[in-house]
Design brief:
Elements (H helix, E strand, L loop, with lengths): L5 E5 L5 E4 L3 E5 L19 E7 L4 E7 L3 E8 L2 E5 L4 E4 L3 E6 L4 E7 L9 E8 L9 E6 L10 E5 L10 E2 L5 E8 L4 E3 L3 E10 L1 E4 L2 E4 L3 E7 L3 E4 L3 E8 L4
Length: 245
């Protein structure tokens, strides 16, 4: 089936919003509650949550299965612990992936104490694996040096052509995630693919005449090649996807 080409800008204010006394969550796709994630996905991207977590707070131990979860920290740090023995600190510039597979339990908390008053600003993204029932696994890598190049860096991929250059690997052969930190005036070309998701994690940018501000996204179908140029210091996350959930 041929999918018609389309480009849709989704403004930050049009995202779902869920909050409590310690969490402020802006959700590009419905994620809090009993939602059919695949029905609301764009391509393979099931979840794109931008969360602010207050100091000393976080998500207590909970379970996932059959999901590839990528966590990208913008400010602060995350203390991660899981049921397969991984624990550590996730900070800006550190790519992290958790493959839930047959089932994994983990907790994620702001690495700062209440007394330190350092908020956590983080983006978490989910895509499905190629097949269910995989062995749970975990991977992380610091890519801070690569981010100083004003170009797209392959943060995570399961595609064969990224076997040697992806920071971390996901168990989906049809998806890749890129990140760029751009100085004002620097540009990137958006990949051409059946499904592309561009998320402006911070800053402001020109996207072919449309101004994008922090929290704005572009959902693209059967198109690509557009140019994004930073207006101010900008960080952008770009998914290239060759299938739908």
């Amino acid at each position: 089936m041929t999918v018609p080409a389309s480009t849709r800008v989704v403004r930050s204010a049009h995202r779902g919003h869920w909050w409590n006394e310690w969490l402020d969550s802006r959700q590009s796709f419905p994620a809090t509650g009993n939602f059919d994630l695949a029905a609301n996905a764009h391509g393979l991207l099931l979840v794109n949550n931008e969360d602010i977590v207050e100091a000393g707070e976080g998500f207590d131990t909970h379970q996932h299965r059959d999901t590839e979860i990528i966590t990208w920290v913008l400010e602060g740090s995350v203390v991660h612990q899981d049921s397969i023995g991984n624990n550590g600190l996730i900070y800006p510039g550190l790519a992290q992936r958790m493959s839930a597979g047959t089932g994994i339990r983990h907790s994620e908390r702001n690495g700062a104490t209440r007394a330190q008053r350092q908020r956590l600003h983080v983006v978490q993204m989910w895509v499905p694996p190629d097949e269910p029932g995989l062995t749970p696994s975990y991977q992380q890598l610091d890519i801070s040096a690569e981010l100083a190049t004003n170009s797209l860096v392959t943060l995570a991929s399961g595609m064969a052509r990224h076997r040697d250059d992806a920071a971390i690997t996901i168990n989906n052969s049809q998806a890749a995630l890129f990140v760029a930190r751009l100085e004002p005036g620097a540009s990137i070309n958006v990949p051409d693919a059946p499904f592309v998701h561009v998320f402006l994690a911070r800053g402001a940018a020109d996207f072919e005449g449309d101004r994008l501000d922090q929290g704005d996204a572009v959902r693209m179908t059967a198109t690509g090649g557009q140019r994004l140029t930073a207006i101010e210091p900008t960080e952008v996350l770009v998914w290239e996807m060759h299938a739908a959930a």
